[in-house]
Amino acid sequence: MQELKERIRREGQILSETVLKVDSFLNHQVDTELALRIGREFGQRFGGRGVTKVLTVEASGIQFAMAAGIALRVPFVYAKKKKAITQGEAVYAAPVYSFTRREAYQISIAEKYLGPSDRVLIVDDFLATGAALVGLADIVERSGAVLVGVGCVIEKSFQEGRFLLEERGIEVCSLARIVSMKPGEVQFAGEECNQKERITC
Amino acid sequence: MQELKERIRREGQILSETVLKVDSFLNHQVDTELALRIGREFGQRFGGRGVTKVLTVEASGIQFAMAAGIALRVPFVYAKKKKAITQGEAVYAAPVYSFTRREAYQISIAEKYLGPSDRVLIVDDFLATGAALVGLADIVERSGAVLVGVGCVIEKSFQEGRFLLEERGIEVCSLARIVSMKPGEVQFAGEECNQKERITC
């Protein structure tokens, strides 16, 4: 998604070879119109495949799950990171380790919101180590739902997330695949060979 | 908002006289189309007043801030509940006590995303004790921005949140105001005197 890559180049802050900050337009302050276009992009790539529900994890996946839900005209569900006292029912849970926050947590989804009749598209802002997305994929599998695919806004291709998902046979589509980065410079997949957009999925 | 009240009556689970669960359509599984209509409702009530930014707090406010942002064609910002390692800059912070989760936490917003040139609409899913919303209002005041108003999806009018905001001179608009509830029964404001929608703001 060319517009997204340009925004990452223009506004992204590369703090190290692994940490990219995009909180001016994606995950703290959110460019609403861009988020909608990102959702339409997921809609185009996963439309016509019977998706009944979009799934993400709170908090920074919500705006993109909502945008994909708008495009696909389906509801979305976001996994909670903690069990609130109002969430007292049976849940699917999975452990996740966050490298960004350097802590382990549990994600959970009420069982009644995911079942064998669902066809699920998982959406998130980042694909890096894949920890949260593998946890979500495990939950989808346990629920008996069909996992149609995973859509990520930004992928750090130099980390193992895509590999971990693909070795489970999961289709992964990222709108901007970063193959390497360092302060002041970001290299996207497909740019050297001019394959542009096609290679991103 | 009549549609919202009907959904609360039909799908809301009243666990006690203070706890209402609406996670089948608002804040765990989200009815995307309803969320968009909620955003349009906020857009109608706060449109034409120069709002430059919608503000909320993660996680369950995000879908409504996004919907309001879509309606008003402005970006939104969500306050973070913890400081991530990628959020290293100057922030506005405020302490909040969550009665639902029974824990204290801190909300924060990067200073660069809120300033004197902004006119802010705060949006959240619930107005009850007002803790998070008062924290957000404090942050807006410190930033020098103008607070245009607060829009809530559901208000528990029997708790002190509205009072705390109004005594600061803040305009509060809730789309469904609950004056009392108990398992199997919910009473909305304005119903006894047939004032319907007008009284909700």
UniProtKB/TrEMBL annotation, chains A, B:
It catalyses: XMP + diphosphate = xanthine + 5-phospho-alpha-D-ribose 1-diphosphate. It is an enzyme of class 2 (transferase). InterPro entries: PRTase-like, PRTase_dom, Pur/Pyrimidine_PRTase, Xanthine_PRibTrfase. CDD domains: PRTases_typeI. SUPFAM superfamilies: PRTase-like. Pathway: Purine metabolism; XMP biosynthesis via salvage pathway; XMP from xanthine: step 1/1. The keyword Cell inner membrane does not apply. The keyword Secreted does not apply. 5-phospho-alpha-D-ribose 1-diphosphate binds at residues 128-132. Its EC number is 2.4.2.22. GO terms for molecular function: xanthine phosphoribosyltransferase activity. Keywords: Cytoplasm, Glycosyltransferase, Purine salvage, Transferase. Pfam families: Pribosyltran. Residues 49-157 form the Phosphoribosyltransferase domain. Xanthine binds at residues 20, 27, 156. GO terms for biological process: purine ribonucleoside salvage; xanthine metabolic process; XMP salvage. Converts the preformed base xanthine, a product of nucleic acid breakdown, to xanthosine 5'-monophosphate (XMP), so it can be reused for RNA or DNA synthesis. Belongs to the purine/pyrimidine phosphoribosyltransferase family. Xpt subfamily. Homodimer. This is Xanthine phosphoribosyltransferase.
